[in-house]
Model the fold of this input.
Amino acid sequence: MAAMTEWTMQGTELAHCNCECGCPCQFSRLPTHGRCEAYGFVQIDKGRFGDVPLDGLRWGIVATWPGPIHKGGGTMQIVIDERADAKQRAAIDAIAHGNDTEPGKIVWAVYASMVEKFLPTLAKPIDLTIDVENRLASVKVPGIVDGAIEPIRNQVTGQPSRARLTLPNGFEFTEAEFASGTGKAVGDIKLDFANTHAHLARVHWTTHGVVR
Done:
């Protein structure tokens, strides 16, 4: 077995799926509608793959599964910041495919192991803003995805309602702010979410897992 390239990535993440706000998957329950659909994007503040720097770059995925993720059969497309050079694109593509990562330790490796079909990786401009504390975010990738995240609203008063989840052993994040999102994916994978689950998190991932 070839030695893994050591990598690290710190930044913020936006994730938006088709589940009801709260997403039962986060509690090891089955998805709200029986199947998993999602997009997720990452702002890298500081990162490195071997000797390749990743600071300041963005990337994400659009994915769909016919049932719960753990049943497999998924289709995924990776989108990488067009500002990345060839080495940086290859590095991010490797991480998104779950390569050079201990099995089961990071969300991307878990997702990749449950994907049956990877569509061609794209290099696109990614307009991404994430404000974890205020539960606000947006992502726009021309021809691929357009989404907006906002706080969950109290159904009686309409005021923002705050919910935060801590997962001490989570393979995606240790702590995330839960939110609500509306967005569409219009590329090869079509998604249409209206006021469904989203979460925003500060993340620190490495070859060997989540840094707590």
